[in-house]
Specification:
alpha+beta; disordered N terminus
Amino acid sequence: MFPHHREREQPIFSTRAHVFQIDPTTKRNWIPASKHAVTVSFFYDANRNVYRIISVGGTKAIINCTVTPSMTFTKTSQKFGQWADSRANTVYGLGFATEQQLHQFSEKFKEVKDAARLAREKSQDKELANTALTIAAPQFSQDLSDELQSPPVMCVNGPEDKLFRSQSADITLSSEKERIKKMLSEGSICELNLEAELFTLQDSNTKLVAALHEANANVEQWKKQLAAYQGETERLREQVADLEAHVGQGPSDLLKDELTQSLEELEALLKAKDEEIHILQSKKADYHEMEHDRDEAIRRLRELEMRNSELERRIQNTEQNLSNSLEDRDRMDSEIQRAIEILDIKIFDLNDLRQSMVKLIDK
């Protein structure tokens, strides 16, 4: 059964995502269908020309959805999408690790939906029934063939008896078809589990091979480093031998002198660190007082900033009032200038009038 299933249905795209199903009661909340991210794959059945979305968690199928042209995959966020399956009367949701994975799944969903729309006319229920009879019930097919090739039943009681025999044969054939379809659906779950497990094992095998190659490369690098360290060790040994040949003291005396010198240096460093600790402890009280002064200075600075803000606001108001006053003064100056011009005209007119009256009096 498994090899035939491999020939019949092949994975065309796979990704990993967290699977959710809509709550059948509220139709609003999401119920996790898997505890962790699982493999979600598109499968193509070449014999039936059918596309399916399948995901298996453990020993059960989480998603077993046949893609139809009426389905639509909707992106509800940057990393989450959903689609409705009317046959299963549910809504599936997928949560991805990256936005790119969501985009790839959405594009593949569109391609598969278009392919399913083109293949819808070619997929016939009769082909499904014949395939099911060929796979799961060869003996029943042989019996049915023998029955079809047997001589026709003679009509004894007229047309009524022939009609009764035909209806009985149709009922028996329908019941056998239903039983065979049920057997195929039960066996299909096992095949899906095996297919998903094989696909997961292939993925794991690929990762293990890559890790093995990387480990081999690391081993080669470690071997080179070890050879370099060994060469460095040999060089140091040669230097030690040269020193022992030129210096009258033995290696133990040299080592003792070096250790003594290192110990003296460490003691001097420890003494210096102790002095620093005492100095820091003496300055601890001053540090607390400095912190208090700093807090007080910060508080005063904030008060000064508030006063500065208030003064700036007052200055702005004063500048605004001054600007308004200057505008009023300019306006009054312009009005006074206009009044002076009018008075000059009136005075000129009065002067003309006076001269005219003087002329009249003289006459």
